[in-house]
Design a protein that fits this description.
About 35% of the residues lie in helices and about 20% in strands. It is of the alpha/beta class and about 350 residues long. α8 (about 225-245) packs across α9.
């Protein structure tokens, strides 16, 4: 399947060019396979540092003896006490990327899989079932659209995939390793470093500028002390993303000073800050006019094609869904033929 997608993308001469370095060589937001591209940090004094964070590439240091070989082993290690010291984003991405390459072989797990997901909400004594046993597979580099009428469970499914909520039953696996039952701190780390989230109503912090909003995931990932030292590098990364989104003239503007399309492009830049493996987009064009919606979709498709970024998008618009590689339809909480 990946070969088919790659062949189709190679023939797409209309794809916008990648970012380029000073020497003219291409520079993507992500390496092939969705893992971070390497980057040298510059400290406050202008010198270089060996320090890195999830927004950077892998550290130039020997692998620790407990480095997990596969994503399955890495997530399994989350149940042990040494996880906090041993588990870095770089180790997880390296292991998960190996799993994804192996995923091209028959019988190997896809990048993301759900099995028998169920979810119900309760209002007083009334239980309202939303998902009723959803089985779903998402492959590396795929652009998947989830469609369905209002109330069919689309957004609920996306929130479960992004670890924003827990299923009542069933499982979610990343690279073959179960992630929905991890402790809260481990789920938070995965959500910050492996998933990018784009929402219909943007959810930008109103008191921050566009640049500061985009920097937030990187600051969360590095922590307060390291984040202070890494601020110049995070600012450069956020500026690069906003320039890619055509917002270089809006860096210092707050959300109330931006149009709907500009706020959504800033939200996409924020979702890409930590170079996620998977981008989850919940009705990214639902609050925009038709022309602006097309531009946002073009941006998502460009990221998918040029960066091999896996995208799972929820939409109620069949014309938007038709632009994806594959469509999954939900009806009354169940997957039905599209």
């Amino acid at each position: 399947m990946n070969e088919t997608l790659a062949a189709r993308r190679d023939s797409d001469s209309g794809s916008p060019p990648r970012l380029r370095q000073a020497d003219g060589s291409p520079e993507g937001l992500l390496r092939a396979g969705g893992s971070p591209a390497s980057e040298t940090n510059t400290g406050l004094d202008g010198g270089t540092s060996g320090e890195t964070s999830p927004a950077d590439g892998p550290r130039s240091m020997p692998s620790p003896p407990h480095l997990c070989r596969t994503g399955r082993e890495f997530v399994a290690a989350a149940t042990h006490d040494e996880f906090a010291a041993a588990a870095t984003h770089d180790e997880f991405v390296a292991a998960a990327t190996r799993d994804q390459r192996e995923g091209a072989l028959p019988g190997v797990e896809p990048q993301l899989r759900t099995t028998g997901l169920t979810k119900a909400y309760r209002k007083a004594a009334v239980e309202i079932p939303v998902l009723r046993g959803v089985d779903l597979e998402v492959h590396q580099g795929e652009f998947l659209a989830i469609v369905g009428q209002s109330g069919s469970g689309k957004s609920t499914l996306l929130h479960l995939l992004g670890l924003l909520d827990r299923p009542d039953d069933g499982s979610i696996r990343l690279g073959g390793s179960r992630i929905d039952d991890l402790p809260p701190a481990k789920r938070d780390r995965l959500r910050n470093q492996c998933f990018g989230m784009v929402f219909q109503f943007y959810h930008l912090l109103p008191e921050l500028t566009a640049l500061e909003n985009v920097m937030v995931p990187g600051l969360i990932a590095t922590g307060p002390l390291t984040g202070l030292r890494q601020r110049p590098r995070l600012r450069r990364r956020a500026t690069e993303l906003l320039e890619l989104m055509g917002l270089s003239h809006r860096l210092r503007h707050r959300p109330r000073e931006l149009s709907g399309g500009e706020m959504q492009r800033a939200a996409i830049a924020r979702a890409l800050m930590n170079r996620p493996q998977i981008l989850l987009a919940d009705e990214p064009t639902g609050n925009l006019d038709q022309a602006t919606g097309r531009e946002i979709l073009k941006t998502l498709r460009t990221l998918n094609c040029t960066e091999n970024l896996t995208i799972v998008m929820v939409t109620h618009d069949p014309t938007i869904a038709a632009q994806a590689d594959r469509i999954v339809r939900l009806r009354e909480g169940r997957v039905v033929p599209a």
